[in-house]
Amino acid sequence: MALVHAETSTGAWQPIEPVGRLCRTYNALFIVDAVTSLGGVPVEIDKWNIDVCYSATQKCLSCPPGLAPLTLSDRALSAIKTRRTPCQSWYLDMALIADYWTEHNRAYHHTAPISMLYALREALRLVEEEGLPARFTRHQLNSAALVAGLMALGLTPLPTPDHRLPMLTCVTVPAHINEAAVRVQLLETFGIEIGGGLGPLKGKVWRIGLMGESCTEANVLTLLNALEEIGLRSGWVSTPGVALTAAAQTYSRVTSS
Amino acid sequence: MALVHAETSTGAWQPIEPVGRLCRTYNALFIVDAVTSLGGVPVEIDKWNIDVCYSATQKCLSCPPGLAPLTLSDRALSAIKTRRTPCQSWYLDMALIADYWTEHNRAYHHTAPISMLYALREALRLVEEEGLPARFTRHQLNSAALVAGLMALGLTPLPTPDHRLPMLTCVTVPAHINEAAVRVQLLETFGIEIGGGLGPLKGKVWRIGLMGESCTEANVLTLLNALEEIGLRSGWVSTPGVALTAAAQTYSRVTSS
């Protein structure tokens, strides 16, 4: 069973834990793609019965791209070591890589990208400095503010409320908005890049990332202000400040004394 | 036909050009591994009828490891695009990578390791600054001095004179020298790492790299001095300065006026 934890083409936060339980019930190996989720939401590999989990460095870990963190359960490694057909790939032959990582009878497999390892170490140090709970809360807060602002502009998240990713917000774009033109204006006038839809969702959704270091109140407000300005000019926003006000209410910290 | 240009397990500089001619005669595709040669000796891809050539960044280009420069001839790309069996690998499917590199209908394949590309650009800028002819001459001169010094110590290059690589010198170690102990002393006392033999050559050869930025007169003299010191202490060198003197003669620049 293979499942993507943070599904970036739809913005869906997929339920890993119940699927992991099913996999144990039916004795299936469970592979989870945590490329976009790691560092932004909890990834509980052993608790959720994940056998193979891989991620990437350039999403919520905010390290340069070039590495894929990977972990294998004993079950997965055993299946790999007892396979009866030869592995097609040298590069991704996990049995060879296991021999490269071992301390005993270490066998050369590849030259590791040293500079990337230093970069990843520094990125992980920054994650530790913030702390995972604070990091998860930051992603939740900023995405909630973003969603509030987008909904005030008439843009509704594609996933149901209990399956919305904090680091990738996917909203449906109403037909009266020229979505491609807005993305071009965002990029060329405001220097902000958001994603369009893929496959069946092409031309129908926007995909907005708030990952790791880029997940900030400043980025949320700047994007909402840019969308408001474009919408007011194009006629699909009538009330100035509607999105910013909605986001501000989410951030509201000062209580009356 | 697949051939390694600079064969680092033996120190052999393999003749690419005549094999390339044979490949054209018999209409075979020619793949050349230029991992260790690129940036240290000429690599004439089109002139030598090479169809696929790949290299690495961390050898004679002196860039951090993590990228593999690659080039394909039209013949090779055509063979890839007309293959009748599906490619086993997504990661190394050159048809997909060709679609990623094209300007028209560009299809996403992977997230490129941006920082590595900047590093490679800087490494190539330094190669250009020195100039390829000067770079090749530097590799030739330093390896000639190294070989002269090693031969003065009774260590003979494994390849014949016309097949000796400048960036990787492989010498046979006489039986009266405890080669593994010398390598440990070099590393622990002098901070210098040289390679031992692989496979059938294990325990019988040393492999000494002089690649890119590390290919300097200072490194040659420092290594020879360390070997002399170890050899004098262990009894397999009797004349102090014999290796350094031989190397110095190779470097000799001052002519009598």
Based on CA atoms alone, the radius of gyration of chain A comes out at: 21 Å
Estimate the mean pLDDT confidence of chain A. 96
> What is the general shape of chain A?
elongated
Biggest β-sheet: strands ordered side by side in the sheet of chain A: 1-4-5-6
Q: What fraction of residues of chain A sit in β-strands? A: 5-15%
Spans of chain A of at least 5 consecutive residues whose pLDDT stays below 50 are none
Which two chains touch over the largest interface? A-B, 16 and 16 residues
H and E order of chain A: EEEHEEEHHHHEEHEEHH
Strand count, sense and barrel status of the largest sheet of chain A are: 4 strands, mixed
Walk me through what this model shows.
By secondary structure, the first copy, chain A, is of the alpha+beta class. The mean pLDDT of chain A is 96. Chain A is 40% helix and 12% strand. Chain A contains 8 helices and 10 strands. In chain A, the strands form 3 sheets. Chain A has a 4-stranded mixed beta sheet. Chain A has a 4-stranded antiparallel beta sheet with strand order 7-8-10-9, with helices on one face. In chain A, strands 2-3 form a two-stranded antiparallel sheet. Chain A starts with a strand and ends in a 6-residue tail after the last helix. Chain A has helices at residues 16-25, 74-81, 94-101, 114-130, 132-152, 179-190, 217-234, 242-251, and strands at residues 2-4, 6-7, 12-13, 31-33, 52-54, 70-72, 156-157, 168-172, 195-196, 205-209. In chain A, a hairpin with an 8-residue loop joins strand 9 and strand 10. Chains A and B meet through helix 4 of A and helix 4 of B.
